[in-house]
Amino acid sequence: MNLPLTVLVLCTGNSARSILGEALFNHLGRGRFRAYSAGSQPTGHVHPLALRTLAAHGLASEGYVSKSWSTFAAADAPSIDIVITVCSSAAGEACPIWRGQPLRGHWGVDDPAAARGSEVDRLAAFERAYALLRARVEALTALPVETMDAPALEQALREIGTR
Length: 163
Hints:
The protein is of the alpha/beta class. The protein has five helices and four strands; from the N terminus they run E-H-E-H-E-H-E-H-H.
């Protein structure tokens, strides 16, 4: 696999989970991964608690935009090596054709943007999503992806998604 690997993190709204995943890959990937995020039905805004969660963990919390996954099907879009869905809705939808031949993985995460209750309850939902995504991104970035073939890497993506 040629580095950096380009990762596209997908969910439906592209306001919370996929934004957290994008930030984590770009932070923890240390130049070996370049991540983007998108949604099948983007909300048009990034959830403020997603940005607050990133900032609380010392990650960049500026410059994120909720965008459609069709952005990455355009002729001038970056070639995608890995597509990771973080919600069941996006995992089950017919995706656009991406540049490249991306490997696919599903890392289901409960939607923190759907959390109800007090601000403390909603922040806790974002923390749970962040922690789960961080553990999975750390598991992938710890692998010797430079020497793995595509079937082995795709199997690893599936296994990480079940943790």
